[in-house]
Amino acid sequence: MVIIDAYNSKILQALQADGRISNIELADRIGLSPSACLRRVQELEKSGIISGYRAVINFEALGVGLIAYIAVGLSDHTMPSQTAFETAMRDCPAVRECHNITGLVEYMLRVEVADIAAYKTFHADVLGSLSQVNSITTYMVLDSPKNDRG
User: Fold this and answer.
1) Which end is more exposed in the chain, N or C (fewer Cβ atoms within 10 Å of the end residue's Cβ)?
2) 81 near 57, Cβ under 8 Å?
C-alpha cells in the first residue's frame, strides 16, 4: 500500500493540474530529485492510485452549450430494471456520467448537449422512452465557478 505523504500529495495535485508535466519540472516543483520523483509516480501508477491521464476538453468549443444534472427515479427497484436503465445510459453519448445514488431517487445523470432543443430531444426520446423511468427532475447548470474534474 502506498502511503500518501506530503510529497505524494503534492505529486497528485500537480498531476491533476497538468498530467503532461515533465518529470524534471514535477521533481523541481515538489522538491525531489528527478529519479526519486519518477519512482514515486511509478509507484502511484502501479498501485492504482493514478489510474490514467486525461485531456481537459473545452466542451463549448465542441458545441456543448448546455449541461444538466438529472435526478431519475425508477418505477421499480429490481435488478433487471436497473440493468436496463444503466445500459441505456451507457449507450447514450449525451450522458457523460451516470451515478446510482441514495435518497429519493435512484440515479443522478450529468448530460451535456448543444442547447435546450437538444435537451428536449434527449428528455423525450431517451428518458421518455424507458418504461423504467418514473420521475425526472432536471437541474440546468448556469455556471461552474469550480470544476476540478479532469
Assistant:
1) N
2) no
**Cα 24 from Cα 13, distance rounded (Å):** 16
Q: How many domains does the chain have?
A: 2
| Apex 12 CA angle, 11 and 14, nearest 5 | 65
What pTM, to 2 d.p., does this model score? 0.76
Q: Are 74 and 132 in contact (CB under 8 A)?
A: yes
Confidence band for 57, pLDDT divided at 50, 70 and 90: confident
Is 89 within a domain? yes
**Exposure b/e, 24-46, CB count within 10 A at least 16 = b:** eebbebbebeeeebeebbeebee
Domain harbouring 113, CATH code: 3.30.70.920
